[in-house]
């Protein structure tokens, strides 16, 4: 069964944490808890690729490697754009 896989900026109200979910068949959906905007993108479509490019994945289930003494400090992650700004 699918579930939340990340978040992106809402294309309607600009809320920075609109949930991105994925179904078992690969369809992505965006749901904003602030303005109730929702959208979906089927597998193989340009819309799905744009959402995946703008999405910040949830960190659950990912392991970070242990830090050694000789590793440099992590740099700031690049700024993300919402899918609405990509679509133009």
Show the helix and strand layout.
Blueprint: E1 3-8, E2 18-22, E3 28-31, E4 38-41, H1 46-54, E5 56-57, H2 83-87
Antiparallel strand pairs: 1-2, 1-5, 2-3, 3-4
Instruction: Give me the oligomer status.
Output: single chain
Query: SSE order, as H and E?
Result: EEEEHEH
Largest sheet: 5 strands, antiparallel
Strand content: 15-25%
Percent of residues in helices comes to: 10-25%
Mean pLDDT: 79
Low-confidence stretches: 61-69
| Overall outline | globular
How many strand segments?
5
Q: Largest beta sheet: what is the strand line-up?
A: 4-3-2-1-5
Describe this structure in words.
The protein starts with a strand and ends with a helix. It has helices at 46-54, 83-87, and strands spanning 3-8, 18-22, 28-31, 38-41, 56-57. It is globular, with a radius of gyration of 15 Å. The protein is α+β, with helices and mostly antiparallel strands.
């Amino acid at each position: 069964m699918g579930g939340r896989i990340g978040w992106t900026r809402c294309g309607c109200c600009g809320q920075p944490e609109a949930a991105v979910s994925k179904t078992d068949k690969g369809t992505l959906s965006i749901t904003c808890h602030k303005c109730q905007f929702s959208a979906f993108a089927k597998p193989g479509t340009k819309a799905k690729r744009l959402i995946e490019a703008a999405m910040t994945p949830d960190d659950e289930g990912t392991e970070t490697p242990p830090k050694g003494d000789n590793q440099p400090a992590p740099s700031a992650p690049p700024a993300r754009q919402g899918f609405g700004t990509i679509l133009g």
